[in-house]
Amino acid sequence: MGYAVGPDNWQSWLNVHLIVPLIHEFAGASALVATIIVAFILVVTIKRRRKKELH
Description:
By secondary structure, the chain is an all-alpha fold. The chain has one domain (about 1-55). The chain contains one helix and no strands. It has one helix spanning about 5-55. The longest helix is centred in the middle third of the chain and has 48 residues, at about 5-55. It is rod-shaped. The mean pLDDT is about 85. Keywords: Membrane, Transmembrane, Transmembrane helix.
């Protein structure tokens, strides 16, 4: 069998070259966003606890 580009081959090519990089980028971006959110929540809670200790 040669290079018969049927629907299946085209779909797998699309998956490898478009969807996989998109998933990788999205996973990286969401991990970054999650880290920022967690850090922000930690900072807010620490500040609130310090305010409670002062009063």
